[in-house]
Design brief:
single chain, 28% helix, globular
């Protein structure tokens, strides 16, 4: 059983490390893998906005850099600036990239009351690219 509140708390904590001097919009993410390992990431902006790194992609990249070989099962995304902070289009495609064909990642957002609201990755990007599968 996935503890959604625990993942939200980890994402909330790492959002405090976000480097967002331009947008002032901090985001934190915590991705949980089948192995039980979790990886965190925050957004890192650049004055050339296109070179910025979203929290979700940062968390996935950290997992890969640490040698994670299993599939992700859930990701929590939090912003102190906005409740129900949805992943951008690029991050939705990253969710699709790392899930198994028969796996649908839980995407956990914080609602207006600080409670988890769970979406399936297929709801957020119903027809993403899946060339590897």
């Amino acid at each position: 059983m996935i503890n959604y509140n625990d993942l939200l708390e980890k994402a909330k904590e790492v959002s405090k490390s976000a480097y967002c001097p331009y947008s002032k919009f901090a985001v934190g993410a915590c991705v949980l893998y089948e192995s039980g390992n979790f990886y965190i990431g925050c957004n890192v902006e650049n004055s050339s906005y296109g070179l910025s790194l979203c929290a979700e992609r940062n968390a996935f990249s950290t997992a890969i850099a640490n040698g994670e070989k299993t599939s992700p099962v859930a990701i929590a995304i939090v912003s102190p600036n906005k409740k129900l902070c949805q992943p951008c289009g690029a991050c939705r495609q990253w969710l699709c990239e790392f899930q198994k064909r028969d796996c649908d990642i839980d995407v956990i957002l914080e609602d207006e009351n600080g409670q988890p609201k769970v979406f399936k990755s297929s709801e957020l990007l119903p027809h993403g690219f899946d060339l590897i599968k």
